[in-house]
Fold this protein.
Amino acid sequence: MSIPDLNLLVTLDVLLAEGSVARAARRLRLSPSAMSRALARLRETTGDPLLVRAGRGLVPTPRAIELRERVSLLVQEGEAVLRPAKKLRLKQLVRTFTLRTSDGFVENFGPDLIARAGAEAPGVRLCFLQKPDKDSARLRDGSVDLETGVVGNAAAPELRVQALFRDRFIGVVRLGHALGAGEITPARYAAGRHIYASRQGSDKGPIDEALASLGLERQVVTIVGSFATALALARASDLIASVPERHTGNLRDGMHSFPLPLAAPEITISMLWHPRLDADPAHRWLRGLLRDVCAALR
């Protein structure tokens, strides 16, 4: 049995990333003719044309699309195997980590995370991106290093997941609101005017299901995209915001918070990352830092 030329994996990775023989040749510092010969060898080895002409450009075949992520991961793992191991020196580490998370998470946990990172590794910069959805594509393509949130069905099955903390929903109103005094019963809570936070724009969730089981329904008068926005509105009006307790600790300063008078389910906030970063010492340090910060803020 002949052993395939594993150098072709690097060529295939670049070809599939660039979608162009000319651009791939420039990136690998080969002549266009040499790259064309390499593509011919790849076609013969895989038994698939891989890239086919479409107008003036090339498009990947279904087989190429299927291979793209696997090949990229293999090449990255191969480079990691052959790279000399270095001991992590945090004081000399210069790196930008990109975290995809919600505004509320950044406002609540970001200050301590930035302070801890700056004290241990002053050359590290944290870049926080908004998280409008649960799409895992940016973790897969490497443009995001770490993500936080509730793990949904859309998360890619290969991702690594570790729980950071459990959270429960509470009610929040401005100081001086009628719900700031007296017993809050399910009926009294439901009778108020409510803000619903939903990235997808839906108007019902687990709290509404819990109320329905008691024969009650709340009036949702506005829908917003984040808990931070819900709290800002509640602070300036008589509306009621229902938000995760630990997730919004700093955001609720100067407001009145109360336990919900119903059995609303808890949620688990986790961090997610791609397995190619599992063994990376700097990324491992960042994950430990985030775990410690979340554990400290109770």
Observations:
- The domain at 7-82 is CATH 1.10.10.10 (Arc Repressor Mutant, subunit A).
